Amino acid sequence: MDFFERMAALRRDGQSFAVATVVGRRAPVSAHLGDRAIIFPDGRMEGFVGGACSREIVRRQALEVLQARCARLVSIRPDAGESFDSSAEHVVIPMNCASEGAIDVYVEPFVDARRLFVFGATPVAEAVARLARSMDYDVCRVVDAREQRDIADAAVPLGVTVVALDALDTVLRNDESGRDQAAVVASQGHYDEEALAAILKSRMSYVGLVASRKRGASVRAWLEDRGIPGVAVVRIPAGLDLGARTAAEVALSILAEIVQAHQSGAIAHTSLPAAASTSAPADAVDPVCGMRVDVATARHSAHVDGIIYYFCCAACHARFLHDREAERRV
What we know:
Elements: H1 3-12, E1 17-26, E2 36-39, E3 45-47, H2 52-68, E4 72-77, E5 90-94, E6 102-110, E7 115-119, H3 123-134, E8 138-143, H4 148-158, E9 161-164, H5 168-174, E10 181-185, H6 192-199, E11 206-209, H7 213-225, H8 247-264, H9 274-277, E12 283-285, E13 292-294, E14 300-304, E15 307-311, H10 314-329
Parallel strand pairs: 4-5, 7-8, 7-10, 8-9, 10-11
Antiparallel strand pairs: 1-2, 1-6, 2-3, 4-6, 12-13, 14-15
């Protein structure tokens, strides 16, 4: 399939991805101007933007771009040092692999609107939904089945989806877009616990509960007693401390906190117990070139003196073993 047809198909399917395009090169490098690759949120890559070293760098940068939802230029060069200043829009990364070439790759995200689940048929829930829609969020109101008719007429003109709480598991299970999702529980005591128990099964960038600290502590204890994972990530009370009083002001404080969470890159790993997330490192630093290596997919590793080292490519692996052997002979 043609590259642009592939992009169009992915957009029609509502999938998020990043496109990496080689826009500059200095020989010797294996990539050419105009080479492209598509990188998905799970790290899969289709296409070609260079050899093993640059490929892994671009993969990681693409995942960051998808998270930040902002494009950037990635310059990979062996002479990167203090004379090169990196910024959010232009990242300069040293490459110490065998090649002495350099490459510039433009990485651009293609992502669907962030999805926000708003629980409750309350004035705060209504205000959060309205403000979020004005900020181009894809809003889904989640209420008790008996409340659906109460809010449906007002939700339709706003482009807000309304689902019953009992159907939420199905909605989450059928969403394979991989897009960013957040949740605000504002049922104000009606079904806070049930809502959080359902939403904490999924990966959310933000989970907030509209409640007092005393009420929040009670909800948190209820969830913990039932072994619900990820309870610690719930923001209680939801929203930045702006001195909000009205429903609209509370909504403003909540959306401000969601924006802040997105900008900081904080992701609530609500689908795994806390103990499981720390059982093994997600990545490691190649001791030869300094590149970060995904431990789960690393093809080259060495177990030396009780320590496992991971490498970005076979060349770094061989150089490390050679240097270690040389040290032992001295």
